[in-house]
Write a structure and sequence with these properties.
Helices cover 70% and strands 1% of the residues. It has 2 domains: 365 residues, no CATH class; 133 residues, no CATH class. The longest helix has 34 residues. By secondary structure, it is mainly α.
């Protein structure tokens, strides 16, 4: 084979670079908007979390750029496009609302000051990323098997719930705090990304929404129309060099309690990595799937080791970047800009000056797109399973709202009134481990719809085991895992576990030798 010189940089890399850079900055802005809502210390976020998180992007994009060079050498092609890598949006929000915020609030309720609680939360976030990096490394060798075991409705339905409820609802608070900023930005997002109208000069819709929303924000500030809590969105540029730290060792035990929330997001990035690698192969770039997944796992591990709290993932946009004419320069540039920019404080400065209201509509769009994908990809007969997957996530949303009310009111205990207490207890049981609950409920219903009662029952047995140890429906005050025989009050746990086992037995006994009405024989 005659080797053609690899044209690793082209004009198409410019558009691809801005698109990939904006994706990463958007995730950092969104996470800050979420943490800001509970009063998280800004110095811990900008000088510890952001630089450490950027290390994962730096390593991953540089590694994927190198893999593009290697693929070009192996195939003799000059038009290879590097696989894009960045911060994973669903888990940015999921880890934020299911790990970081609960940990921060729990630490304060335990008597810690704001800064001390913030440092504990940072260490728990680091430990969670390190755990996820190790688990993703193992899963890189098992990803295809998991993809075969869990139906699409389980994998996508659980994330659709996060998209529709958490990503779809929570950003509204930022939008309606500053409606002139948020709603105008939302209009641009709906016009360009949902309705797919082309903006002048081909400007990306998300980029336009952020720029216009930010311009309106500062315009309002210039004429004195911002509220008293707005307007002070500056951060001095300063060095924030991430260094490897073992500070997370102090909170490894505490982080274990949050793994049931975080691990499913890691699993989904593995399955998603398999899908996007296949997508790249169809577009003409035949990357080794396992290597793509191992780089992703390594980037997540390094991010955690250097203080990061958000995992990386290969992005689904490879064919789009290839259609732009991008090669390897865009990932190389993005990795360097995000990595070095974070060390110089530039990334933190950009994240600090962009108002959350300007970015929230993009998050809302992502939530809608994730929710729609579940219905586009899953078989129509499995739609009920997808809808069922939404219910535990709604429980988590209600739990977050209840905890916020209790915390802000200084109340310890349950909500006032029997109905309020019952609602809180139900939402708590559903919300703890909601990703696993959604995934397994949807998988079981899908198998039942397909007439596979034994397989459906197997998922219920798994639910029973997970419930016994607190991975789902945890009854521990902090939502952690436990040994059931160490619980002071195990009645609820035993009843739930027996209910799932009983359901499994019922399905097997009633479904033996039968098929659902209207199904193929």
């Amino acid at each position: 084979m005659t080797y053609k010189t690899y044209k690793w940089a082209a004009w198409g890399d410019l558009n691809a670079f801005f698109g990939l850079l904006l994706d990463n900055l958007t995730n950092l802005v969104l996470l800050w908007g979420i943490l800001l809502g509970v009063g998280f210390p800004s110095d811990i976020y900008f000088f510890y979390m952001v630089p450490g998180t950027a290390v994962g992007v730096l390593f991953g994009d540089l590694a994927y750029s190198w893999m593009a060079f290697r693929l070009a050498r192996r195939t003799g092609r000059s038009d290879v496009t590097a696989m894009p890598l960045g911060l994973d949006t669903p888990s940015t929000i999921g880890v934020g609302v299911a790990v970081l915020i609960p940990c921060f609030l729990a630490a304060q309720q335990a008597g810690m000051g704001v800064n001390e609680a913030g440092m504990v939360t940072w260490k728990v976030g680091m430990a969670t990323m390190i755990f996820m990096g190790v688990i993703k490394t193992i899963m890189a060798f098992l990803g295809k098997a998991i993809q075969k075991i869990v139906p699409q409705s389980g994998l996508l339905g659980s994330i659709a719930g996060v998209g529709i409820t958490l990503l779809g609802f929570l950003p509204l608070s930022h939008m309606y705090d500053l409606p002139l900023v948020g709603i105008v930005a939302l209009g641009l997002v709906l016009f360009s990304l949902v309705a797919r109208f082309r903006l002048p000069m081909g400007i990306p819709g998300a980029f336009a929404a952020v720029v216009v929303g930010t311009a309106i924000y500062y315009g309002l500030g210039a004429v004195g129309l911002l509220g008293p809590d707005e307007g002070a969105r500056s951060l001095e540029l300063s060095l924030a060099l991430p260094v490897p730290t073992l500070a997370s060792l102090d909170e490894f035990g505490r982080a274990l309690a949050y793994l049931p929330f975080a691990v499913p997001f890691g699993l989904l990035t593995i399955v998603g990595g398999i899908n996007v690698t296949e997508s790249a192969r169809c577009a003409g770039d035949d990357y080794n799937t396992r290597n793509i997944l191992l780089v992703e796992a390594g980037a997540t591990f390094l991010a955690g080791l250097f203080g990061g709290v958000v995992q990386t993932t290969p992005y689904i946009g490879h064919p789009a970047y290839k259609a732009m004419g991008a090669r390897a320069a865009y990932t190389l540039a993005c990795g360097l800009v995000v990595g070095i920019g974070a060390m110089l404080g530039l990334v933190s400065w950009l994240v600090a000056i962009i108002p959350a209201a300007a970015v929230a509509p993009t998050l809302l769009f992502i939530g809608v797109a994730i929710g729609a994908q579940a219905f586009e990809v899953c078989p129509k007969k499995h739609y009920p399973a997808v809808v069922i997957a939404l219910i535990p996530v709604i429980g988590e949303l209600v739990r977050i709202a209840c905890v916020s009310i209790l915390f802000d009111s200084g109340i310890s205990g349950t909500l006032v009134g029997a109905d309020g207490a019952r609602l809180f207890e139900t939402a708590t049981l559903l919300g703890r481990g909601f990703i696993l609950t959604s995934m397994l409920w949807a998988a079981a219903v899908s198998k039942l719809i397909d007439g596979l009662a034994v397989q459906a029952s197997a998922y219920m047995v798994v639910m029973a085991v997970l419930t016994l140890f607190g991975f789902t429906h945890s009854v521990s005050p902090d939502g952690g895992i436990y040994l059931p025989w160490n619980l002071e009050e195990s009645t609820t746990v035993l009843h739930l576990a027996l209910a799932y086992v009983g359901l499994a037995v019922l399905w097997v006994s009633m479904g033996a030798g039968r098929r659902p009405e209207g199904s193929e024989q």
